[in-house]
Amino acid sequence: MSQDRPSDAPDTSEELPAIEFASPGRFSIHNPEEISKDLAQVEPAPFVLGEHLSLERFSEANAARAHALALVQQARLELCLYSPDGEPWLYNHSALRDACQRFLLQSPKARLRILLGDSQRMIRHGHVLLQLCRKFTSQTDIRLRHPEYPDSGDAYLLVDQRAYLRRPEIDSYAGYAWYHEPAKGRQRANLFEQHWNTSQFDPNLRSLPL
C-alpha cells in the first residue's frame, strides 16, 4: 500500500517553530553573584599589624580593599564588621574570602561577627562573607542593627580590638586604617558591642538558598 501523503493533507516537512513551555513546577536557583576578575587580583597593603604605628589614609576603592585584606590576613582572634549592606565593592572578592577562611580555620576560638544595616543586598545577590557564615556556623554570627538604636553613620572593620579600618561616610571610598592603636581599638570595640547587644536576628541570613 502506498504510503504517499494525500494531496490535500498539510505539508509538515518544514520544521515547525518551537513552542515555549514553562513547567508549573519550575523554580529559580539562587547563585552568589560572580566575583569580579578585577577584584580577584587584590593585593594586601604592606603594613604589619601591631608594628605599623602611622595612620594610613585612603580615598580610592583599590586602596581600601588593600588595607582591608591586609588587616584580615593578620587577624588572630576576632573580626568585627559594621557595615550598611556588606559593601560588596570592598569585601565580596575571593582574596578576602580566602583570608577569612584561613582566619577561621587557624583556631576554634577565632570569631567573625557581622552587623548589617540592611541584609537584602547580601541575600538577593550573594556574598562571600554570607557563604562563610553559613559554613562556619559555630565561629560566626551575622545580625541586623536594631532600627531604633542610634546608627553611628559610618562603616568599619575591627581586628583583634587593636586595629581597624573606618570609612566615616558610607557613600565615599575615603577612610583610614590603623594597624596598631589599642586604645582607639577598644573604644571601637565598645561601640560595636553596644550595637551588637541590641541587634536583631534575621533567619534569612542563616537559611540556605535553594
**Mean residue pLDDT:** 84
Structural class: alpha/beta
Biggest sheet strand line-up: 1-7-6-5-2-3-4
Distance between the termini: 57 Å
Brief description of this entry?
The protein has 210 residues and is an alpha/beta fold. Helices cover 30% and strands 16% of the residues. 29% of the residues are buried.
Secondary structure elements and pairings:
Elements lengths: L55 E3 L2 H13 L4 E6 L4 H4 L2 H13 L4 E6 L3 H6 L2 H8 L4 E5 L10 E5 L3 E5 L7 E4 L3 H16 L5 H4 L4
Parallel strand pairs: 2-3, 3-4
Antiparallel strand pairs: 1-7, 2-5, 5-6, 6-7
What do these coordinates show?
The protein has 210 residues and is an alpha/beta fold. The protein contains 7 helices and 7 strands. It is globular, with a radius of gyration of 25 Å. The N terminus is likely disordered.
